[in-house]
TrEMBL record:
It comes from Uria aalge. One of its GO terms (biological process) is cilium movement. Residues 199-246 are annotated as: Disordered. One of its GO terms (cellular component) is axonemal dynein complex. The lineage of its organism: Eukaryota, Metazoa, Chordata, Craniata, Vertebrata. GO terms for molecular function: dynein heavy chain binding; dynein light chain binding. PANTHER family: DYNEIN AXONEMAL INTERMEDIATE CHAIN 4, DYNEIN INTERMEDIATE CHAIN. Residues 223-243 have a biased composition (Low complexity). The gene is Wdr78. Its main location: cytoplasm. This is Dynein axonemal intermediate chain 4.
Length: 713
């Protein structure tokens, strides 16, 4: 390549000669492509001209056919180019048709982001060096406390970005509250508001009059003294009047507070409240006690319409009796035959439950009724325990004592730290109320005392229960060796698998009456079936749910478990069951001996069934399952050997086995938002008490139920 400028050769000389021969620089693709159109070409750039030889053209053609690795050479000798040109000229058609291999190689990797790993394999080469560095760092951290070479410093970092968080809460429940205000309440409150501002204003005026008195001038000394004397007399009279009014008002307030806090006034209010409640609930209480209803002739109806309804019923009954007497006189029917006819007519009317009232107040709303018990001495006193059965719904519990004389507010209220699961009154000491709680503690309250503190508690007992106390009961046991003849003891059953007897002394302490062991289910082996390995038990003890002592021999008792088994146990044997009754597929919630036929007992379970058992047979006699709902409680009627009540979640059922063993004679359905949890028969009347999940204890009257025959069992 030679460069000429106006006929002068201005070609630059090379700086390096690798070969004594002429050195020809490598041609690029651009010049090679331009040389493809002709062997020799020229172009004018300004005043310069360029010429390209055939050798350079041949070189550029060869550059595109050689391997990529050879493209890194910067110079090519002229002899090599001439040799390649001769080789290209000697190519034949066979050489042109021959395939040529072209190899493409990969370029070097370009790292855009390199994040070295913080973990190294133990088998790597750098493992030893990194372990040594870690050991040195650990030694530095160990020697850091108390070392002067280390200094703590603080630095400010960028604040994190604010985030919006949303929290979902329960719906806010709105309630309307109202109160009754009399005219004298308005008058007294209005006078109080008037007296206080006037006294403050008069006091401020008096202080202002006093402050202006020292600022009198010497020139008008005589006049100012007179005016000041008049001002002082007027202000003093106003102050004296306001002080007298304020003093009288304070004396009246102190006197009224003394009256309201006096014990005599509290007692009078207590009796007045009972009288008002008995006047309001008089028809319902009379129906509860099965007394005739007394109706005031001046009263035609009340808010609930109960008086009018009772009056109408009495008129119908009176008209019916009158009509029967007239028919008897006309037909000369014997009284015995007439009574039989009346019985037949009564049997045609279906039995039903008539709701009288409910024991409920603002304090018990939202607490589920867990247990109920009558006082052994006072049949009008009812103890109700409030607590949840589910672990997720646990909250503080209540134990309330209700009286028939005031169904709107309990006589005694005992606040408990945990949910109440069981309670019972003592027979030997009627003022003692035993309460079992969800955390396994047992407390004994004195219902004669108004204090909310339990005199005896099992919190300090080393043998206290570790699971919920599902049932407790005061049991009288015959002790012929003792002078008293009978002694009373407190028995509890808990979810920790223990049945305990509590000793009521200076403090509560217990001894184990029985430890309920788990039993394997008896599965029938099919012919040809191999024996299976027994499954390992997580706990050796089964959770106890309920118990009931034999009505005649208190040495024997039944115990229901969470496995669905019922064990017959003896107080004399603490290690072995006498019998085991298998029939339920879920936890047994209640067992109850028949008070008349003492060989029979009932059991209810979470498997929706009620089973009638005979103590000599380990297979069920009858199974009652009228609805697909959990049966929480059962109880035999104290007046009939055939009648019992069952509390299911959705309904309350009254069964009469003398009428039907397939369907209940009475079914009372619950409202959509409530569930029935327990039942209890009244001891001296034909009434039934039902507790629900909303904290209400409803009192029902059993109407048109067949009269029991005491001789028939």
């Amino acid at each position: 390549l030679q460069v000429f400028d106006e006929g002068k050769d201005v070609t630059p000389h090379p700086l390096f000669h690798s070969d004594p021969n002429a050195v020809v620089p490598r041609q690029g693709k651009l010049l090679a492509s331009s040389a493809h159109f002709g062997a020799t070409g020229s172009g004018t750039y300004g005043s310069s001209s360029t010429s390209i030889s055939n050798a350079s053209t041949t070189e550029s053609i060869l550059d595109e056919t050689v391997e990529p690795g050879s493209r890194r050479d910067t110079t090519v000798s002229l002899s090599g180019v001439q040799g390649r040109q001769e080789e290209i000229e000697e190519l034949t058609e066979e050489d042109l048709d021959r395939s040529v291999d072209i190899y493409l190689t990969e370029t070097e990797t370009i790292w855009i982001l390199d994040m070295p790993s913080v973990a190294v394999s133990v088998e790597s080469e750098d493992a030893g060096r990194i372990q040594e560095r870690n050991r040195i760092y650990a030694d530095i951290c160990k020697n850091r406390p108390g070392n002067d070479r280390f200094v703590e410093k603080m630095m400010q970092t960028i604040n994190g970005a604010a985030k919006n968080k949303e929290v979902q809460c329960d719906q806010i429940i709105m309630e309307d509250k109202g109160m009754t205000v009399t005219s004298w309440d308005l008058y007294n409150s209005f006078n109080v508001l008037e007296i206080k501002p006037t006294s403050k204003a008069e006091g401020s005026r008096a202080t202002a009059g006093r402050s202006t008195k020292p600022h009198t001038t010497k020139e008008h000394d005589q006049t100012t003294s007179v005016s000041s004397d008049r001002g002082s007399t007027s202000s003093s009279t106003k102050i004296s009047e306001s002080s007298v009014l304020a003093r009288n008002h304070e004396e009246e307030e102190c006197h009224s507070e003394a009256i309201l806090t006096s014990e005599k006034f509290q007692q009078d209010l207590f009796f007045m409240e009972r009288i008002l409640m008995e006047n309001i609930f008089q028809p319902k209480l009379a129906a509860y006690r099965q007394f005739p209803v007394l109706i005031d002739p001046d009263i035609t109806t009340d808010a609930s319409g109960t008086v009018a309804a009772v009056k109408e019923a009495k008129e119908k009954e009176h008209g019916k009796e009158k009509k029967d007497k007239e028919e008897q006189k006309e037909a000369f029917i014997e009284p015995s035959i007439l009574s039989d006819v009346n019985k037949i007519l009564e049997e045609t009317v279906p039995p039903r439950l008539e709701r009288l009232w409910s024991y409920t107040c603002d304090l018990t709303n939202g607490h589920s009724v867990s247990s109920m018990a009558w006082s052994k001495v006072n049949p009008d006193l009812l103890a109700v325990g409030y607590g949840a059965f589910d672990f997720k719904e646990q909250k503080k519990g209540l134990a309330c004592c209700w009286s028939l004389k005031n169904p709107m507010w309990p006589e005694r209220i005992f606040q408990c730290e945990h949910g109440v699961t069981a309670l019972d009154f003592s027979m030997a000491s009627p003022n003692l109320l035993a309460v079992g709680m969800y955390n396994g503690s047992v407390a004994i309250y004195n219902v004669r005392s108004c204090k909310d503190v339990a005199p005896l508690d099992s919190s300090e007992s080393p043998n206290k229960h570790t699971g919920p106390v599902w049932q407790l009961r005061w049991v009288e046991q015959d002790r012929s060796a003792t002078a008293d003849g009978k002694t009373e003891r407190l028995i509890c059953i808990s979810a920790d698998g223990r049945i305990t007897e509590w000793l009521v002394q200076k403090r509560l302490d217990c001894t184990d009456l029985m430890k309920i062991k788990r039993t394997e289910s008896e599965k029938k082996k099919l012919p040809g079936e191999k024996e299976r390995r027994s499954e390992a038990l997580i706990s050796q003890q089964a959770a106890g749910m309920c118990f009931d002592f034999h009505p005649k021999d208190t040495n024997f008792y039944l115990a229901g478990t969470e496995e669905g088994h019922i064990h017959k146990c003896s107080c004399s044997s603490r290690e072995q069951f006498l019998k085991t009754y298998r029939g339920h597929k879920g936890p047994v919630y209640k067992v109850a001996w028949n008070p008349f036929s003492t060989d029979m007992f009932l059991s209810c379970s979470a498997d929706w069934s009620i089973i009638l058992w005979h103590q000599d047979s380990q297979s069920p006699l009858l199974t009652f399952s009228s609805a697909t709902a959990v049966v929480h409680g059962i109880m035999w009627s104290p007046k009939s050997a055939f009648v019992f009540a069952a509390a299911k979640e959705s309904r309350v059922e009254i069964w009469d086995l003398s009428v039907s063993i397939l369907d209940p004679v009475i079914s009372y359905f619950a409202s959509p938002r409530e569930k029935f949890t327990s039942v209890l028969f009244a001891t001296n009347t034909d009434c039934l008490l039902v507790g629900d999940s909303r904290g209400e204890v409803s009192v029902f009257e059993l109407q048109n139920l067949a009269a029991p025959n005491s001789n028939k069992v």
